[in-house]
Amino acid sequence: MLDIKYLRDNFAAAQKALATRSGELDLSGFQALDQQRRELLSETETLKAEKNKVSALIGQTKDKSQVQGEIARMKEVSAQIKELDERLRSVEEQLSELLMGIPNIPHEQSPVGASEEENVEIRSWGDRPNFAFAPQAHWDIGEKLGILDFERAGKISGARFALYTGAGARLERALINFMLDLHTEQHGYLETLPPFLVNRASMTGTGQLPKFESDLFHTEEVDLFLIPTAEVPVTNIHRDEILNEKQLPLCYTAYTPCFRKEAGSHGRDTRGLIRQHQFNKVELVKFTRPEDSDAELETLLQNAEKVLQLLELPYRVVDLCTGDIGFSAARTFDIEVWLPGQECYREISSCSNFRDFQARRAAIRFRREGAKKPELVHTLNGSGLAVGRTLLAILENYQQADGSVLIPEVLKPYMGGLEKIDN
RNA sequence: GGAGAGGUGACCGAGAGGCCGAUGGUGCUCGCCUGGAAAGCGGGUGUAGUGAAAGCUACCGGGGGUUCGAAUCCCCCCCUCUCCGCCA
């Protein structure tokens, strides 16, 4: 959520900045609603002050017969207050709905552009493998090795689910452990294991609600949502809290499964592990002081890149343009891994600085040393990494002519010393 | 799922229609005292909205209601604890 005061005072500038994002945005009602709200507020508060004053007087008067007129008048005032409050509530509801639907203002340094075509590659790492044979896609490799079973997953659940077996399941688990160990032992993140079902307040805090409810799996009788990313429960760890400046930055990592409806992506990436209703992810989340968030995004991005470097998987880093940045983010870097089976780069991590957008929604603040007023923190997060996509990248990059797949050096200890997966 | 007890400021804990944004204590902080510290003494110490400011308004788990007036009474919901049931 944007700062209403900022929007009020910089309406034209905000509108201009927001126009560089994709999608339609109608802010025309804002100024009138904002005005109405303040008028109603002042009106009802004047009446409340009057009511409070007179009621105190009535309380002090022993002989109530002397104040019958006051009592009657206050009854009238109370009714007026009630009516004004109702109008105020309706205006505030409309205003909040409008405000909650406004995306974050892009970072000044984000490249301006209309779509992903205009994202800017800022660096790449590693050498793409040269194969003396035609590399296969991971779904073929995995099925032939008997470690991925999409057909039975379809039977059990439906489309966009995967069944891992044997070395496949082990490899997924090895990756989770490897990533968590790296981030906790080398990068200083605190491991967490949060709930996978969260309430509306949490989803609203990070920006999934109210706008993107249709992307979420929802449970019927208890009004909970399956998390689409660990960002939601982990960022909400500190919802409605005031942190000490000394604690910052707070850095958390979490492994969780993620659940997404993928509504609107019918027919896209229907094969393989790329786009699943359920997938595993290790997430990195930071809470920082405002002045530190740009630098912290850079280190978070490097922490995510480190996973690919250690796994020796070639990748590139892309600075998302204003038209491609997600709703809540101000700035986003995507890491894209090279997939030889499909001869393209695919997103494997998305690292974002949300600035105070989520913090305002979720009321996550901190108090500076000696300061009276608390301030909003900045929140950041990034995948470190999407586990399923990492596994498929290994299958495609480490595949051999005979159909086997070598295990990356750093994963061998996590695979019980296994050197390669074959039949 | 059943029965009971609770949810008050950073924390503990009073308050049971008006004198309560809330006694007291702990913590924190500033000052005095001290060679320094402890102890002691004195002051300060919630958040938000609105306003140029003084101030005003709201908030005692959440939402409704009764009343001139609600932390306090009534209704619904949520959460925590204890016991029983069930279960990993």
How is this structure best described in words?
- This protein is an alpha+beta fold.
- The protein has 2 domains: 28-100; 116-421, 2-Layer Sandwich (BirA Bifunctional Protein, domain 2).
- It has helices spanning 4-9, 11-18, 30-60, 68-100, 138-145, 150-156, 167-186, 200-206, 231-235, 293-311, 357-362, 387-397, and strands at residues 120-125, 148-149, 163-164, 190-192, 197-198, 225-226, 241-244, 250-259, 278-288, 315-319, 331-339, 344-355, 364-367, 375-376, 378-386, 405-406, 420-421.
- Helix 3 packs antiparallel against helix 4 and helix 7 (167-186) packs across helix 12.
- The two termini are 53 Å apart.
- The structure holds one RNA strand of 88 nucleotides.
